[in-house]
Amino acid sequence: MNSPNDAPSATWPYPRWIAHRGAGKLAPENTLAAFRLGASHGFRMFECDVKLSADGEPFLLHDADLDRTTSGHGPAGDQPWDELSRLDAGSWHSAAYAGEPLLRLQALARWLQANGLLVNLEIKPSPGLDEVTGRVVAQAVRRLWTGQTPMPLLSSFNPSALRSAREAAPEVPRALLLETLRTGWVDEALSLGSVAVVAHHAQWTAEGIALAHQAGLKALTYTVNEVACADELWAAGLDGLITDRVDLMGPRSPA
Ligand code: G3P
Ligand code: MG
Q1: Which terminus of the chain has a lower count of CB atoms within 10 Å, N or C?
Q2: pLDDT digits (tens, 9 = 90+) for 192-208
């Protein structure tokens, strides 16, 4: 594999390899167990999904509902953190992780900083809560990462969430997440004050990456789980890659 240097550059302070939801599918996504596993494979940056509890606590969960990845049921955003904190977010994955709790952003910040690790926080609002989620997550990052460099990279598919994150804490860098490189994507990313575009891997070509670079944007991608695909994208000039396969590619990949 043409694995790029994972060290930060003069123009990009983040590692190029990013572990998806902590450690992809190898441990229960978005739990501290997953981050620990990703770190044990040498990853120094992680992507995860952040939303709000009913009482405004930022915590990690991908889905709008609790059912797939926890012992709870129904919309995650309807429950206060005190209730969410009692759920089992590990048993659905495997017995080895039974009892693993949901993770608050506050606790994740403590663990990342203690271990010198970085994060891409995907703002994943519960339905109807785009703006408040963007604002509260950005304010929490400002507070929890005070004095830390680099700050977490915020990202979202949701332009409203990115806009309110920008208004609340403009110093926290943002990236626009895109399933497709839709018409006007460069201008859209720039109008949100983005530093990067994170697009689905099938969307990027060398020409698209060059367009991003010409606009001063970095080009990142999700979620690449095939070595051949990663190789092609690195060769095309990609700046960062999110993967589930921390066991197959990335910082401590087998030769
Ligand atoms: O942040 C990139 C990627 O995580 C977006 O897709 O559905 O896995 O959150 P999803
Ligand atoms: Mg995500």
Answers
A1: C
A2: 999 999 999 999 999 99
Ligand 1 pocket, 49 CB below 6 A? yes
Rounded Cα gap, residues 171 and 152, in angstroms:
11
- Rounded alpha-carbon distances, angstroms, from residue 52 to 56, 140, 141, 255: 5, 11, 14, 41
Q: Which of 20, 41, 93, 201 is catalytic?
A: 20
Check if 70 has its Cβ closer than 6 Å to any atom of ligand 1.
Answer: no
Structure tokens belonging to residue 114: 């203690």
HEC string for 216-255: CCEEEEECCCCHHHHHHHHHCCCCEEEECCCCCCCCCCCC
Q: Which atom of ligand 1 is closest in space to residue 62's alpha carbon?
A: 9
Helix (H, G, I), strand (E, B) or coil at 31: coil
Cis peptide before 75 (omega within 30 of 0): no
What confidence score (pLDDT) does residue 254 get?
40
Q: Classify 49 as helix, strand or coil.
A: strand
The CA angle 187-126-143, to the nearest 5 degrees, is 75
Are the C-beta atoms of residues 77 and 49 closer than 8 Å to each other?
no
The reply to whether CATH 1.10.443.10 applies to domain 17-243 is no
Q: How far apart are CA 9 and CA 218, in angstroms?
A: 12
Find the distance separating the first CA and the last CA of the chain, reported in whole Å.
Answer: 8
The three-state secondary structure class of 108 is helix
